[in-house]
Each structure stands twice: as C-alpha cells, then as structure tokens.
Amino acid sequence: METFQTIINRRSIRKYKSSKIEEEKINLLLKAAMYAPSAMNLQPWHFIVINSEEVIQETIKSVPHAEMIKQSGNAILVCGDASLEKNESWLIQNCSAATQNILLAAYDLGLGTCWIAVHGMSDVMKNLKAQFKLPEEIIPVALIAIGYPDEEVKTEERFKEEKIHYNNW
Ligand SMILES: Cc1cc2nc3c(=O)[nH]c(=O)nc-3n(C[C@H](O)[C@H](O)[C@H](O)COP(=O)(O)O)c2cc1C
Prior knowledge:
By secondary structure, the chain is of the alpha+beta class. It contains 6 helices and 5 strands, in the order αβαβααβαβαβ.
C-alpha cells in the first residue's frame, strides 16, 4: 500500500528550497534507478550526478528549459549505452524505467523531482553530449531536477474508465 501511495502522491516539483541533498540519499536514488527492469537485464544506463554550481550553470545553457535546477541545486542526467542495447526504443524504455524509479524513490525520501525532457530534442541532446564529453555510444535521455520541495502540488482525479479496454479495443 505504501508503494501505491507513493505512486499516487508523487508530483512534479518546480520550486525548491536551496538545501543540499545528503550523499546517502543520492546513492539511494541511484540504487533505485539500477533496480529498474531492463530488456534482457542489460542495465544499459549511466547516471551523471550534477551538484556543482558551475556545472548547473553550464547545464542550463545546454537545456534552456531546465532553469529549475538552479534552485534545486541537484540533478541527475540519465544516459543510455547504445553499445549495450542496440534497439533504441528499448534503450529509451529502459532508461525511462530507471528515471521513474528515481522519481518514486525521491518522493519516499522527502525529495521533490521533475523529469526534464532531453531525448527527442536534438539540439539539447547535442549540447549535452558536447558539455559532458559523452562517448559516441552514450545517449542522454532524461534530466531530473532533485531537491527539497518548496511547493505542494495537487492534481485532478486521473482514473478514467474510458481509457481502459478489456480483451479488445
Ligand atoms: C518525457 C517527459 C518529459 C518531461 N519534460 C518536462 C520538462 O521539460 N519540463 C517540465 O517542467 N516538466 C516536464 N515533464 C513533467 C510533466 O510535465 C509532468 O509529469 C506532467 O505534467 C504530470 O504531472 P506530475 O508529474 O505532477 O504527475 C516531463 C515528463 C515526461 C514524462
């Protein structure tokens, strides 16, 4: 039931208190990411922890819609290893599962997060590849802002009967 409540109550947070995150919490988030499901259990992911002010400034230049990481003070760039998982669709699905694990684990640890779009935005991907000197086979997939939340976000009821189909469309 606790897991269910975490899934239901997690919200994207875009306002953060400027406190640093304890290293053990970052390690727990990375551990949660690495326990995500992956096709053939290839675990084709890498994680770049961003917590230096200088790197945050550079990252905002690479990802202009990531301004919120200035306030959160912490972010994780989730990357896929295309040399391990050659099917790009699966690579992105694997990294997305890892990303979602981070969002849920962060909520459990009292942290707020926001998934910031990277994959599918060719300029942003190119900028990040250059900024972090990513090897050719490493694909940036998602940037996650992480910090102590400074807002409470509610959402509407999302359970919609009309989205559900049994045994046929
Ligand atoms: C692939 C993906 C890309 C997203 N990109 C952004 C983004 O660039 N900026 C942002 O503020 N939120 C982004 N979000 C967060 C969504 O806006 C958010 O999940 C959605 O509004 C639902 O709100 P919730 O996360 O509180 O349930 C992204 C989410 C996903 C899954």
